[in-house]
Amino acid sequence: MPRNRLIALACLAAVCVVLYMTLAARAPWSFLLPFRGTKLLALILVATSISTATLLFQTITQNRILTPSIMGFDALYVLIFTLAVFFLGSQAVMRLPPQMVFLVTCGTLVLAALLLFGLLLRRNAKDLFQLILTGIIFGVLFRSLTSFLQRMIDPNEFATIQVASYARFNDIETDLLIIAAPITVIALVLAWRRRDALDVIALGPDLATNLGEPPLPRQWEVLILIAVLVSVSTALVGPVAFLGLLVVSVTYVLVPSPHHRHLLPAAALVSISVLVGGQTILERGLSLSTPLSVIVDVLGGAVFLFLILKGKRI
């Protein structure tokens, strides 16, 4: 049953990819293939990274509401970028080589994510409600610091920060794919190799220990992969608040399997269909009248509220 649904999801994702490459193709293919192909590769990398990171995070926290974004990761990215503009100035930041900015941003986000998520998981892992509350408080703290710094900088430099505060699916730095693609692929391969261990970790720390799978070392291994995947995708396109929650929630409905060998590819295929299909509709049909990130955040926010209310009723 999960295999048939994976095939259907793969067909849906393939249709979205073909439509993205061929719809309204009026220029020569010698131009369209590299132009649209690089953007398509970036969308696939971002979609797979976010869906995998969210699924892994929900596995180690044993909670289907939590995501790295909800725990304050997106606010942390905006704060780091604001600090760079505040101390260096927007012109100095824009003059830096994009590859260097990407690597520094990813490295900083990975270290910050390990400190943030590691601290939360170590102290509040057994109290999920306290874990959610602490993560939200961290997010509010990061946003407050960001707002304070933004009020102190020049209004012209504020525009640079504002652009970086939203996901940019239609304006992706494709030159960064040379760095982002290998890092993402390595992290995804390592996550796939741990699919069986993730099935055991999802049972809880007590059962995992009885089955010979030490939960704490595995949690830190997975946490590093999550930090890398989220950092690369965020540095590539910007923060996306609810995409991971949206696609993983849909994945649980479409592929109700406890095995990560089904969930990981299913979540990636759903995420690719949402990003590539949504970007195709907006670019080819609506001429980008509405940013895709806004639609994703609205739908994802509705799913988040639904899951919270459903949990309260249970």
Structure description:
- By secondary structure, this protein is an all-alpha fold.
- It has a domain at 43-242: Orthogonal Bundle (ABC transporter involved in vitamin B12 uptake, BtuC), CATH 1.10.3470.
- 80% of the residues lie in helices and 0% in strands.
- It contains 14 helices and no strands.
- The chain has helices at residues 2-22, 29-61, 73-88, 90-95, 98-124, 128-152, 155-164, 177-193, 195-201, 205-210, 215-237, 243-254, 260-285, 292-313.
- Helix 8 packs antiparallel against helix 11.
- The longest helix is centred in the N-terminal third of the chain and has 33 residues, at 29-61.
- The two termini are 28 Å apart.
Explain the layout of strands and helices.
Elements: H1 2-22, H2 29-61, H3 73-88, H4 90-95, H5 98-124, H6 128-152, H7 155-164, H8 177-193, H9 195-201, H10 205-210, H11 215-237, H12 243-254, H13 260-285, H14 292-313
Helix pairs in contact: 1-13, 2-8, 2-11, 2-12, 2-13, 3-5, 3-6, 3-7, 5-11, 8-11, 12-13, 12-14
Concise structural overview:
It contains 14 helices and no strands.
**CATH H level of the domain at 43-242: which superfamily?**
ABC transporter involved in vitamin B12 uptake, BtuC
Report strand %. under 5%
CATH architecture of the domain at 43-242: Orthogonal Bundle
CATH class membership of the domain at 43-242: Mainly Alpha
Distance between the termini: 28 Å
Considering DSSP H and I runs of 4 or more, what fraction of the residues is helical?
A: over 70%
State the shape: globular
Question: Cα-atom Rg, whole angstroms?
Answer: 19 Å
Structural class: mainly alpha
How many distinct beta strands? 0
Unreliable segments of 5+ consecutive residues: none
The average pLDDT is 81
CATH topology of the domain at 43-242: ABC transporter involved in vitamin B12 uptake, BtuC
